[in-house]
Amino acid sequence: MKKILIFGSYSVSSFYSNKVIFDNITISGCVYAVDCIIDGFGNCHITQQLIPTKQSVIRCRFRFHVFTCPWPIDIENLMELGRNALDISKLSEAIQLFRRAYDYKGEYNKAIEYYEKDLKISLSELGYDHPDVATSYNNLGNVYQNKGEYDKAIEYNEKSLKIRLDKLGHDHPAVATLYNNVGIVYSNKGEYNKAIEYHEKS
């Protein structure tokens, strides 16, 4: 059984089953695995993070590295994991941990600092038109939206949208999600005609 819940700017898809199968799927966002088994086949990708409970079993081979954080989220534990990753020279992983921790804490300027470091690494390792670079731009857009800097949010979301359109095409769910994100930002700005334009595209 599947339910979709809307919370302001966010939507949550809920699957109520002891076993969930991912088959050639891209999920633009987070996956919370609560006491279930997830089996994956083909190309599976989660753009944000996988958050399982201890009782969950994840049997997927993801196309790209997926950041995994145990549920319930412990922000101080995230910071400690980041410090440990720095100590053992896992710079990219440390940056991901710190940026998420600061974002959760509402310390947006610090979060932006680490999101920008993450973007710089992605650009240098993957190039300017890789889907993971699009995800980095989208992450920056989201944190600027949370901060209330809507023009910066639109700027980064548009960069992400351009890459995803070029690489994935107009009909991909990740493109629809970005159109929706930009629409939400325009709505927050009070530019409702632009918001409608983007929501209709999604």
TrEMBL record:
Domain of life: Eukaryota
Name this polypeptide is given: Uncharacterized protein
A Pfam family hit: TPR_7
PROSITE patterns: TPR (PS50005), TPR_REGION (PS50293)
SMART domains noted in UniProt: TPR
Organism: Reticulomyxa filosa
Signal sequence segment: none
Spans of repeat TPR: 92-125, 134-167
